[in-house]
Design a protein that fits this description.
The protein has 97 residues and is mainly alpha-helical. The protein contains 6 helices and no strands.
Length: 97
């Protein structure tokens, strides 16, 4: 791990990717989910957190203010999108040099 993050030339890029995923984590919700005593229920709740679509339209649909379709990406899709967009940006800058 030390080589990957500190000594490797790709270390700063890896740190940026890790920090972008770290900033997206809903730690308050995860903390409450981990307090569930039953392991199966806890894992189910964690999967719901990761696969939930958190957007304004989802919240308004849940409250009953609107009845439109869910829009947006779930948390897992946002992670993959953030990581691939960072990789794509890194590849374009490397090929231009």
């Amino acid at each position: 791990m030390h080589y990957t993050l500190v000594l490797s030339p790709e270390g700063p890029t890896m740190l940026r990717m890790i920090s972008s995923v770290h900033n997206m984590l809903p730690y308050t919700i995860i903390r409450q989910t981990l307090k569930i005593g039953n392991v199966a229920s806890m894992l189910s709740a964690m999967m719901r957190v990761i696969l939930a679509k958190a957007s304004i339209s989802t919240v308004t649909n849940w409250m009953g203010l609107t009845s439109g379709a869910d829009e947006g990406m779930n948390l897992l899709q946002q992670w993959v999108s953030a990581l691939t967009s960072g990789s794509r940006h890194m590849l374009t800058t490397c090929t231009e040099s």
